[in-house]
Structures
1.
Amino acid sequence: MSDSDSGRARGVLDRAAAGMLEASVLQRLAIATASTVAALAVGLLVVAAAGYDPAVFLRNVFEGAFGDSNAIARTLKFTSIFVLTGVSVAIAFRAGVFNIGVQGQFVVGGFATVISILWFAPMLPEGAVGGVALMVLGTLAAIVAGGAYAAFPGALKAYAGANEIITTIMLNFIAVGVVGFLVEGPFRGEGQRAPNTDRIPEYVELPQLVYDVPDFSILGLVVALVVVAVVAVVMARTGFGYDMVTSGHQEAAATYSGVDAKRTIVKTMTFSGMVAGVAGAVFAIMMQGYYSDPGGVATYGFDAIAVSLLAANNPLGVVPAGLLFGGLDSAGTHMRINSDVPVQLIDGIVGLVVLFVAAPELFRMAAERTGLGGEKR
Amino acid sequence: MSVADYAARNRFRLGSAVALVAIAVLAVALLDVPLGDIVTIGFVERSLRAATPIALAAIGGLYAEKSGVFNIGLEGFMIFGAANAAAAVWLIGGDSATQGDLWLAILAAVAISLVYAAIFAVLLIRYEADQIVAGLAVWFLGLGFGPFTAVIIWGNRNSPGLVGIDALTVPGLAGIPVLGPILFNTSPLVMLTAVLAVAAWVVLYRTKYGYWIQAAGENPEALDTAGVNVTRVRYAAVIFSGAMAGLGGAVLLAHAGSFTGTGDTMVNGRGWIGIVAYLFGNYNPVGAAAAALLFGGLDMLQIQFQTAGIDLPNRLVNLFPYAAVIVVLTVWGSTRMPSAVGETYESEE
């Protein structure tokens, strides 16, 4: 290749990279990809430093996430929950409200689902019709409970100036403690050895259409995608969504145009908590079938923060990000049995993803340093 | 803020504090709570022990925030401090570690925290990372890699019994009634924390370095004009905050005597409570330590309730500190932050 050729190729590459850095959507996609790759790379370094074989680890991750139909069903199961909790986080973050309490709202919602289904079950006919009615009632209960549990810190932020990051984290601890106490004592199922509620009736379940596994139905994923679509439309096409996003990004302008910023905060939190409630309902009905001590329930609401950030808090972007995290969690489940690498590594990698997403400047500077992106910026 | 404003706010603070005390007194009187069984010398001593990790993290956090950087990663740094101190004491002394090994391990944990905090500071200051998101990331990293370390070493997220710090008995002074057992026959880390809190106050309010830190957060332009490098001041404050939180985690471990990595780990929100402690203490190191004592006391109520025969489920009593945090934030929520917090500063040379 001649010098001028390589120069031209370089120019094309520079322009492409520069264009990518400019284009907002592409840029965010690039940052998300770079963050994920960088996090996995650091994760592999840690694996190697701890004395394991990174190649084996990587193979375990892929086998665990997509290796066979069981693995895929498991990945999609976790994905359904991550998409829902991720959208819940995205709603709040988009509006500039840091709802770190999705985990708590998810727990409270799921518990409300189980309790209301157990309570209504004797009043309704058994069988498919009753099952659907109970699922609807249970989900409504979760939406109300999750929404209310998020509205509370929203109101404290709006009207008393209490930092929502800290209040929602405290409410996570309180949700786990109180629900844990309730399933240990007052709501413990009869004859249950473990601190669990009674099981919800057999007929209250989503039908197995594609995968024949007990704790996942493709309908769970469909519910998640429908919620994504609804949220995306609300955020982009309604006055409420517009108020939410503008007051998050340009509070002064929003206030000037007559938006009540305080009420918007409360509404945003409520909306976010309602979606977290749906996530809790899907988890309770599809995955568990009863409620256990939430101290032992996986931290879908925490990891959702990473899901949402990776998606640049875009409701649609949450779908691929949720798939990535679903795959990671699924790989973790697989590794627990088939590998001696501690699964806590997966949590660490989640942290690394968040760290890299927090510092996009890192990649911009790296791109500049290597010459990609030319003299832009 | 005008003087009248300030007075009004303080009146509000004072008023709400009085109201809280009144409610507490009323509750004690109406419910016939055996107060004497609850507020014992042992309780005060335990509360002080429980308060030290929170106070250390809070002092670190307020230095960072005073300098204009919000270190929301205190919780994560505490987890790393505890896990690294546990790992270090195991590597140095195995299952028969001595007190000397423990002190060495605490030092090692602080040294490692310094390195982590330096990386964190570079990301925040040089690479202008989002302070909230990066701080959350530190927490996530701690929740992942803290227990990961434990599993690598012990094959379990919890360590076996390691070594706890011995009480330091000061001959003579320990015999003083009430004060003796509380201050002179307890963990030496309690006294260390008290000394650090006072030292942090002196540095912040009585030395030029303290004024630099305050100026970096309130009016970076003026500090820059005066010829002091704002970025360097902020680096120092953030690294200090990470090291203090790491020390807090190590102290927590030294008091507990073993590492717990299940759930939200043994730190269990203490870093977040630390943030609230310095807000409550109005960014004053001594005030923050006092606020930490409040949360430490609430944390230790459970034992008192048991000995006093008050029958409340543990699971619920354990939630008191978290509930108190929400009350404090609601009543004192609008604390005045340094004006330049969260803004990156670029010197115009």
2.
Amino acid sequence: MSAVLIGLLAVPLVGAAILVLVPGPSRWPWYGPAVSGVTLVLALALAASFDYGRAARPQFELDRPWIPGLDLRFHLGIDGISLPLVVLTALLTFLCFLYLVRHKPDGDRFRALVFTLLVLEVGMVGTFLALDLLLFFVFFEIVLVPMYFVIAVWGGGGRRAAAVKFILYTLLGSAVLLLGLLLVWANTGTLDMVRLAQQHGAGMSRGVQILAFLAIGLGLAVKAPMWPLHTWLPAAHTEAPTVGSVLLAGVLLKMGTYGFARIAIPVAPEGAAVLAPWLGAFAAVGIVYGSLACLAQRDLKRMIAYSSVGHMGFVLLGLATLTPVGMNAALFGNVAHGLITGLLFFVAGGIKERYGTADMSRLGGGMLARLPYVGSLLTFACVASLGLPGLAGFWGEMLALLGAFQPAPGLSRPLFLVFMAAGGLGTVLTAAYFLRMLSRVTHGRPTALTALPDEGPYEPEETGEVTPAGAAGDVTPAGAAGEVTRPGAPGEVPPPRAALRDVTAYELAAWTPLVILTLALGLWPKALLAVTDPVVQAFLGAR
Amino acid sequence: MIQSIDYAAIAPPLILALMAGAVLLLDAFLPRGPRTRSTLGMFTLAGVLGALAVVVAQAVRGERLQTFCVPANLAGGRTSCSFVVDDLTLVFGAVVLAAGVVVVLLSAAQLADGTIPAGEWYFLLLCTLTGAVTLPASRDLIMLVVALELVSLPVFALTAFKRYDPRGSEAALKLFLVSVISTAIMLFGVSLLYGLTGSVHLDRIGAALPMSASGFPRRYAEATAAIGAQTGTPADVLGQLPPGVTPGVLAVAVVLVLAGFAFKVAAVPFHFWAGDVYQGAPVPVAALLSVISKAAGFAGLILVLTIALKGQGGLWGPLVAVLAALTMTVGNLLALRQRHAVRLLAWSSVAQSGYILAPLGVAGKSAASASIAYLAIYAAMNIGAFAVVMLVSRTAPRNELDDYRGLAFRAPVPALALAFFLICLAGLPPGLAGLFAKVVVFREIVQGGGGWLAVVMAVNTVIGLYYYITWTARLFAPVPEAGPLAARAPSRAVTIAIALGLVASVAFSVAPQLVLSAVG
Amino acid sequence: MSAVNALPGMAAAAVLSPFLGAAAGLLGTRRLRGGGPPGAIDRSAYRRAAWFAIAPTAVSTVLAVWGLVVYLGNLPPGFTTYAPPHAGTRPPVGAIEGTLSVIGTGAVPIGVGLRVDELAAVIAILVACVALAVQIYSVGYMRDEPRYPSYSSFISLFTSAMLLVVYAGDLLVLYVGWEIMGLCSYLLIGHWWEDRANSRAAVKAFLVTRIGDVGFLFGIFTLGLAAGSFRIQVVLEKVPEMSTGTLVAATMLLLLGVAGKSAQVPLHTWLPDAMAGPTPISALIHAATMVAAGIFVVARLYPAFLGARPTLDLLAIMASLGMLGAALAALAQDDLKRVLAYSTISQLAYMAGALAAGSDQAAIFHLVSHGAFKALLFLGAGAVIHVVGSNLMSDMGGLRRSMTVTFPAMTIGFAALMGLPPASGFFSKDAVLAAIEHAAASAAPLTDAAAWLLYGCALLTVAVTGAYATRAWLRTFFGESRVRHVPLPEPEPGVAHVWDGREAPASMLWPIGVLAVPALLLGFTGIGLIEWSSAAVSLLVALLGAGAVYAAWRADPMADPARVLGPLRVPCERAFYVDAVYHRLFVAPVLWLARVVARTDDTVVDGAVRGSGRLAVDVSGLLRRAQTGNAQLYLTGILAGVLIIVIGTVVLG
């Protein structure tokens, strides 16, 4: 079965290689969905044959030396905390490709985009499969360059600055992460995550553990992102194309928090114990700060980006408690955030594609009248994101707060109670900004749309690409036609929204799985908790 | 006294030197014709490949060769040889010669327009290579200096070869002046070192100088006293320093000796020349300076530090660490705002020198191995980048970064290759070679406890990424109108050169073990 | 006993049936794309939606009734349903529990399970019946509403969530239902989202209750961790072992959630605004679901509250302020629905007062009877509004002749609200007052001051209630008609505010008529609770208030009797400016803070990042300045550098 693990990496990699070497596949719009679909099938096969009885142990292990000079082993495996993320990654990538079939950001370089996303998938899946510290780092780094290009080539108006900020900031983080990993290696002499986790920090003095946790934690915190290391995120999210935002929020952010659960906390437990209050404090500040920042945002995508800061704050808070329940919360929150924020960015991207802007004041109101399906899906995603019980977002946040209510022994309980209170305040503020946004955008009467954005070299989306031929015309929703008024100023380019149409079949195909999974995990959280709990107990067990 | 010479040991430099002479003769006697240049080029290439073959053969046989030895009974306690072929020599030799092949190929393109006399060019090139191959084998100070000069002097002339370009001669002058100054400083240091130890052989110097844990020279007296107390020997016997000489003199000697090599590797404060000279020189010469001459400099540096001064790690370690930090920072910062491709590569290679120096700064057990590994990988990626730059310079002589805009659409293969080299240099996947090289260096630093240096290097990696990635992004940026590049067909020699760089970089990416096992 | 064992399954079916109805209503009633012209009503989808809405709720109603029957049929002999409120704690009655699965969280596990006991069985009937009435009523009320399918689905979801709260066997399961109700209230209050005011009201309802819910969740944590389980049964069993501190902390936090959901001071402000939703929704929220949940939860966890005296004191004070303030506010409103809304706050405060006074039975009794008559009142008000085309009482009057069904039904409702015998309100309100009186007399479980405050306020409120109920009744149904016999110029899209001068359709009248029965007769089930002395006092006081208003009305039937309030009238009408104060104190500062954070993020946090980038560029420029191309400078630099290094090495070494 370990061949499946190889397959998970090899299929997208070979797919990307074929794309470069063979000129044909680019003409075939289903190439991307096909390759990522095979990957998804492999991931699902993995999930199906996974032995849930021993979720705590890595399964389907594959261990080959790669670079003896660096002690680097090609060591892959999957256990209860990586399995959900691998499936999530494969799913989101597949959905992105599905979405891209009809919603191409740019016709010319579509082949390059498919190539980039496939390489990205290799890095993302590999990060969750790696069981060797250096291998983890290598995969961790692989995603940087493709994501840079996704933002820099297919992004919005300020894409270049955003892309540069993204890659520089995250590289700084990973450089520090590397130092931490090497520090662990220098003191323990092994890079094997499984062994390191079993040792629970043996071989490292307290000081080294603190230093190692600090370095690894800092590196991962940039990726997570933890306040105040988050400022690359809003820019990157706002400028990235829809699929970029989805993968960035859905998977890339998870790599940071996954690293905490997988490496930082099990490998340097004493360091974690010393620094956990700080982590918790930053997380709590992040929750409140992110929510407040959201309240003042005008751009839809930017607001969702800031909401990620808040949500990942919950994940980090869960981790900081160093309790099994907190870790479970973090892992649950990871998956839930991937699903929900992925959906949010999909919908926001769809809105931006239709209106030509994501600025809330330009969007006007009345989306529920203009685009009932899109408006409803946006409402659903927002409600899920604000942590409503019965939807996936709730369990991660609730369990994180529960963890903070009674943190691990040795941590200051009053302090964590304060964090918990801050988290509670954050949930209120989260509801506040989402509902405010919904109220502004989806409610009210559809108003006259204001002029197209005039920010910089903005290239308006080609709606001709969006409308599938033959299906247009008979799908205009009630109230959409005739209500669009154009600004009469001379010389202005009329916005390409005469064909404002409700959700397309491809959008629906890409979004529905996320909706269903959000509901399913929300109604039956045990499905995920039962998988992660054994691993978490094993990581924290010996203390 | 008759010395027997082991010709097998000195075969690589010998072949190069003989070939240099042959090229000069051929140039004089061959009839001028359209094929002359390429014939000379072929001869040169054959010479370099021959030398490379010998180096590979020596490596495969795996025996340690030495020659020009001083017997044990003659002034000193053991046999000391001036020319030694060991692992270090072979790795450096291979790197230098492999890079030499690429430089020769680039030269063919450079010489194609006929403004530069081919015979002299190839002669000088072979001379430099001779020096660069000799230097890693040198085990005494005199030979080191001679080899170093042999590397440097032909480069002045090579730099000045673009006679129609005033920048060329100005660059040559600057290179010459800086070189002279640094050589002078170094010779002063060599004489001091000789005066202190009474020997020019590196191993004898190493034996003559006292071991010190750290904190030279102020704590030198205490250190020797302590060692003396432990071993029961009087302090001054242990050290063999002439009585009356203060330990500070040793420090001065060390610093001054290092100066010569610091110039070669363009470490701070000997970096000033790099930008002007790289830009002024023909592209193949810039490539030569950034790889071959730099490798030679590092070979000498590593030899002196790890053999002659191996007990003085406490003295030169912090010094090298500071220099490394300064070098990488200054190099990166200078590269940050460059718009000229070669100038950017000049400063970036200064920064890379800093990374190579860094492991030496913590003076760990395998510091030299880490440096050499990085150097070898760096050589592959950097020479590849220069090959693509050479290609572009044929159509865009100004070689601004903006000339690379949209290259991916006009010349996809070279553009992708350059992207790969640049990502490698930045140290990011998919350029795994660069990443692993950095990991090796980081690991050495972290293991040696040089935390601050690691952090400085981490920050520098980020700065470096900025200019590499923006250059890479230009390759894929849409170009407003059709650029001038499509005009000339790419030269076959350059294409081969790019391919060589690419093969080496990819090989190092997939299996960095190739380098890591060779160095140690 | 197999019937008893089937109770949890029955409860699950009762919860799931409206849930599935909601899902079917949302997914199965979509107009086929492209079918019909824009804005047209798809009658078949509408009919489907109506069936999806009514049938599952009817199933739930049947199941709930059957559940109570089975439960009571298996009671231990000698058990009385309602003991006198001051008779101390009741004999423990076993709850029948069923747990589907236990979710390990890493700490205290969550048991996915339901429980049926007397409390749950009774409240479930209330919920299901009112929901059924509302669903049937809505068919007529929302006749030409294009979004009827989603509307009725949300009502089903609402019902399902409330039933989940009622039947929950685990505190976190309860919380799930608790929060979903918040969402449904948001969706339904904002049903006519074209109007920004409705949208704002919906957001306000969700946010204000959410503030309380956070505290509620923390309260659950406190209880759950102290008991080692979130199962209600275990928590209640462990209450005697918990320290007073834990109990006070837990109940205070729970109280926050209760105040939010049950619209008690200080989190009551959302309820009057919630009138923005369609009237049936108001009936649902005010009578059976949302607001009842708060009172229900306190009763559910009553042993914990009894162990925390300070919490009860606080509850008493909140109740006192709420009942009197809201009643006064109700007296001054012109909007009929707002009168009823404030009256809900006031009546809920009665229940809270009863709980504070130590009688959960009185509270639940009043909750049930209030559920019946308030639903009746709202549905009746809906019928009135449907006919008149306005919410304002100044546009009504003289309707008793034209609305031959609504008028008597609403008269019963108002009588119950005032507490006039024999309507149900008389009995239940008396039970509450008696409980409060006992608390004041016996100084347990409340402190004296709180108990007397509560008693005083309760009596005063009875008088004010009599006054505002009489006023609303008179202004609506008596006197000259002030109805403008012209249709409003532009009816809101979908809002059935079209005057046709006739009584409402049968689908609306039937629920009203049926609800009038329990509103009138439900009280007799608790006749054993009656204490005639306090009943006489309260009746007298209520008649006093009613008489005063009647006198004022008689003097000038066209004028508003609220004028007797004099200078107090404006503050009462504005509900004592609480909204404005909250806006000043909380909303504005938070928005200000948000702007500050956004600006700080850009200038300071990101500014530092950009600054470091700019610093590198600036230093780069500085270094480049040294690269003049001047060889002399280079050489000087080299020599100076070597000198510095040499000196440095010698001195520092």
